[in-house]
Amino acid sequence: MSEPVWLVWAREIQAIAQTGLTYVQDPFDKERYEMLRNLAAQMMAEGSNVNVQKIENLFSQQSGYTTPKLEVRVGVFDAQNRLLMVREVLDSNRWTVPGGWTDVNLTASECAAKEVWEETGYTVQITKLAMALDRARQGHMPPEPFSITKLFFLGEITGGEATTSIETSEVGFFAQENIPQDISTGRITPHEIARLFAHHAHPELPTDFD
What we know:
By secondary structure, the protein is an alpha/beta fold. It is built from five helices and eight strands; from the N terminus they run αααββββαβββαβ. It folds into two domains: 5-60; 69-209, Nucleoside Triphosphate Pyrophosphohydrolase, CATH 3.90.79. Residues 67-196 form the Nudix hydrolase domain. It comes from Acetobacter pasteurianus NBRC 3188. GO terms for molecular function: hydrolase activity. InterPro entries: NUDIX_hydrolase-like_dom_sf, NUDIX_hydrolase_dom, UDP-X_N.
């Protein structure tokens, strides 16, 4: 499922405006970049029915050269080849695999292991980068105002026990044929789940990308 073209355009305009505001010195050019940023906010508000002021506030908090945000997700399997999943509190308790935004001063794999520990109570060793994907091209819903790169790792349990957190209301393992129907599609898609199972079954597979 492709994203609506208005979102692609608005995101691009916002990126141009943010990068321009980072390096601009001429006050007249600065005003033009601010106009572009406001235009992008208006486009997103019109297309999403979100208050334009909320979007403008979100954009105004961004600074520096525009780059995609980085998210990590982890496929962890038990001895019965079942996938570890959690109910995400912030998404009406829908199911996903552990993960979240990367943190400063940590590598991507360290962030991945940290997310598993915080959301499930299990410690893991990260063993493989299975997928490096652009979120906008994978059919995730709802769409996001910013570009996001999603890194999917595989991890092996080294300790701990199932424990919920302020982010998760339930922790469980699921065989591929028993994956819950209520998936948090903003975080993971059925196709991405299938690819995690494929990479677990065939560790020699190369990393999926794009």
